[in-house]
Amino acid sequence: MGPYSKMLAGGEMLSDEGKIEFSEVPLMPAPSMPSMPAKTRKRGGASTPSRWVWSSFVNAARRDGLELSHWTKKTSEVLEYPYAAFNVRLERVEYSEADYERYLRDSTWTMADTDHLMELCYQLDLRWPVIADRYLPIPSRPVEQLQARYYFVARALADAGVLKRKRRCDDDATLGVSARTRDFDVGYEEKRRRQLHAVFCRTKAEEAEERALREELKEVELESKRLKKSARAYAQAAQAHRAAQQTQHAAAAASAAAGSATTTPVASSSSSGAAASQPTTTTTTLTTKQQAPTSQQQQPDPAQ
Description:
Elements: E1 4-7, E2 13-15, E3 20-21, E4 52-58, E5 67-73, H1 97-104, H2 111-124, H3 128-134, H4 143-160, H5 186-200, H6 204-298
Antiparallel strand pairs: 1-2, 2-3, 4-5
């Protein structure tokens, strides 16, 4: 065991060579979840508890080959460190002078400035505030112009096949580009940053005024909702009243039509009775006239 220069919080010793060693194996961490109640356990016998072992591992995302140790479940196979997949390393954007003249030529950029920017983006993993701070060429450029230049170069070379990509440039984490950055709008980004800067530089009085305006706006919105609700209720009541009036008018019209239909047959029957009685009177008159001469014939003549 070599000399140690520092002791870490967990009892580990960090040597001068950068290797972490332990004087003894640390205790296995206690389970974070309570044990399962007996009623909720699966049937079929008692389950065998998992065995944990203190094993060493190497993070594939690291380039220095640092070997660390941790507690893992005892299995027959050695699994790769799972969190290494989240370390996506940016790919270096490289091109020749001919490629630059053919695909990347710009009147506001030189090849030397572009090379310097591509190298900074690779070394700093597209951390744009740091890149803007480390960018040396004169005149200095705002971060929006640096972003636009990098996205244009990466997209143009990937679309031209210079980078020999296996997938489209619109969604490539190793190049730091996506569909959102394909048409990078410099003007929009500058406006967005100015607005964020203005919000950051607000005073306490301006923040209080904004809060008061928000509260007032909230009250106006609530009053507007209340009025809209009242208007809807009034419209529904008016519609129901009109429907009731229409129903009443229809019922009255139907009743009047039924009454007129009942009066018409009575009048017709009276007319028929009068017509039937008139021929009877005529017949009686004719019979009387016919019988009159007969009576005269039967009376004796006084002269005889």
